[in-house]
Write a structure and sequence with these properties.
alpha/beta, Peroxisomal Thiolase, Chain A, domain 1, 3 domains, 4-stranded mixed sheet, globular
């Protein structure tokens, strides 16, 4: 990166990680590098994971007596237990049979690498989190940052749209699975505890959308959490995009949030054979010390994916609203294609669906911009999980379709090499990385690999560990975003460069109309830069409107033409046309 961008990046991380230093010394820079991206797991003590050992004890020929706190006495009384007396809060029992026990112990994890939030950054401290699961803490922070980073106040955006013309689509692939959510809920009875009043509700997978509606935007528009395993983010992008294309929404916030760095989940994926064990990676390298940084190795010899946590949110607008508001346009998304795998042997195994999604995305690029654009000025963000199966199956898909479209060496990158697999947020990582390519002129190399595996199909692909420097305005028109999810959830999205998007808008709105937009955009850019600098200095001013702006039914203005909602300049229109005029059988007005 240029020196100014490099300095800005380190300053941002220094602030985010709460480092108490005024200068960016080499030691500070190295600390930031060591405690970001994929690294040794810091969220849990991988050498001392709490566990239980199932055992039993029984009388050695005779019965024995024990005193048990009365409130902890089992009900009903186990067979072979006889109550002798109760004094105060103690009950004495005589036992003449085997007693099963769960004794506390610790175990060491065979997986010690993961992608994690920067060390020192705790999203729970950015707002009154009130025992929220970590995934929802990240949701509030990420959605707030996405909204504030637009450089346009939410009140200004609201004034330009009707209340139901905003959509929110976001989800977790697994749901919330920590002690404050599903894990705590399911473990409580076995640990002699009671579930809390929040755990069940906060476990729901669509909560990353619900929290944005309730506490960030106050939205009353379309919403859902579209789950699709590793393709979840693209599923939600498609929902927001479809709402905008069909006129149901003018602005959409789409996203995904996942916080899976939980000992039980890590162990489950390890037993499944999906996640990379330390020993397997060391065996590949014939070394005795594990390099956590290189745990994820897409398209090289590898041993499994690397689990990671993240929350990513995007703000989508229709082109007219973006022009009117002078929004900063980082790119555009014309379509997302989704196809299932058909019949399968193994539910997590690959199938044919991803051939269809990639083929459709490539055909769309060709129809919009021509064959030369696809062949010479496109590249693909591969799903690139770092598993032996993925490197073969995904490379075959990309290579065969590159042949079909006469692409000699199609550039392929895989950002999971740096970030790990964030599940629901994974395609969001890929999209934001693509936007960064146009901002900084770099297609990231796959730095965690030193060679491409022999079984990878790459006759028509360019898979490299080296960065590719580009002219962002000329060299790349589009990026394809690919996702191959468990269960046959395949999705491929198309992202158009900001330069190409600007050309398209100028064609639609004319030179003068686009000039007017650029004037408004100058103010937006200044606001973005100001927000960015204030965030570095003071942290993100997280948007969390708990209990604010709550509207009761009695406050609505109701009539046959519209519904007015306090706080909104425009109303919800009730002017709904009959979508089935040729089938109507009711009385005419």
């Amino acid at each position: 990166l240029p020196r100014a961008d490099d300095e800005h990046t380190y300053r941002a991380f220094k602030s985010l990680m709460g480092l108490d230093t005024d200068t960016l010394t080499n030691d500070v820079r190295q600390y930031i590098l060591d405690h970001t991206l994929i690294r040794k797991i810091e969220l849990i003590d991988t050498d001392n994971i709490p566990a239980k050992r199932a055992t039993s004890f029984h009388p050695a020929g005779e019965s024995f007596r024990v005193a048990v706190p009365t409130r902890q006495m089992p009900n009903p009384l186990p067979e072979g237990w006889v109550v002798l007396d109760r004094i105060g809060n103690k009950t004495t029992v005589e036992v003449d049979t085997k007693v099963p026990l769960l004794l506390p112990e610790t175990r060491s994890s065979r997986v010690t690498a993961a992608g994690q939030l920067p060390k020192g950054f705790n999203p729970a401290k950015t707002y009154p989190s009130r025992s929220h699961p970590r995934g929802l803490q990240m949701t509030i922070y990420s959605a707030s940052d996405a909204l504030l980073s637009t450089g346009i106040s939410w009140s200004t955006i609201r004034d330009h749209i009707r209340p139901d013309q905003v959509s929110v689509y976001a989800c977790s692939a697994l749901g919330q699975c920590d002690a404050d959510s599903l894990s705590g809920l399911l473990q409580a009875p076995c640990l002699g505890k009671r579930p809390t009043s929040k755990q069940a509700a906060l476990s729901l997978a669509e909560m990353p959308a619900d929290f944005v509606n309730a506490y960030v935007l106050g939205s009353v528009g379309g919403t859902a959490g579209a789950m699709g395993a590793c393709a979840t983010f693209l599923y939600n992008v498609k929902q927001g995009l479809d709402d905008i294309v069909h006129g149901r929404a003018r602005v959409a916030m789409v996203g995904g949030a996942e916080a899976p760095i939980v000992a039980d989940l890590i162990e489950a994926y390890r037993i499944m054979g999906a996640i990379a064990e330390d020993e397997a990676i060391m065996e590949l390298d014939d070394v005795e010390e594990f390099d956590h940084r290189r745990a994820c190795r897409p398209f090289s010899y590898n041993a499994g994916f690397t689990l990671s946590e993240a929350a990513v949110y995007l703000v989508l607008m229709d082109d007219q609203l973006a022009i009117d508001l002078g929004a900063e346009i980082y790119g555009s998304i014309p379509s997302v294609f989704i196809n299932a795998d058909g019949y399968k042997k193994s539910i997590p195994g690959p199938g044919i669906g991803n051939y269809l999604t990639v083929a459709k995305a490539m055909s769309l690029v060709r129809s919009m911009f021509g064959s030369k654009s696809l062949q010479q000025r496109s590249y693909i963000h591969a799903h690139g999980t770092g598993t032996p199966q993925n490197r073969v199956t995904e490379s075959h898909i990309l290579n065969e379709l590159a042949k079909v479209h006469n692409i000699e060496k199609w550039p392929v990158t895989a950002v999971k090499a740096y970030l790990g697999h964030t599940l629901a947020a994974a395609s969001g990582d890929q999209i934001t990385c693509a936007l960064g390519t146009w901002r900084h002129g770099i297609i990231p190399g796959i730095k965690s690999i030193d060679h491409v595996a022999d079984d990878v199909h790459d006759s028509n692909l360019r898979i490299s560990s080296e960065h590719t420097h580009i002219d962002a305005d000329k060299d790349i028109d589009v990026a394809l975003i690919n996702s191959k999810g468990f269960g046959g959830n395949n999705a491929t999205g198309v992202v158009i460069s900001p330069a190409h998007t600007h050309s398209m808008l100028q064609k639609r709105y004319g030179k003068e109309g686009f000039k007017d937009y650029l004037k408004r955009n100058d103010i937006t850019r200044q606001n973005i830069e100001k927000y960015d600098e204030e965030t570095i200095e003071n942290g993100v001013a997280t948007v969390y409107k708990y209990g604010e702006g709550v509207v009761e039914g009695e406050e609505l203005t109701l009539n046959t033409d519209e519904v007015g909602i306090p706080g909104w300049r425009q109303s919800v229109s009730m002017d709904l046309s009959n979508p089935y005029p040729d089938m109507s059988v009711g009385d005419e007005d």
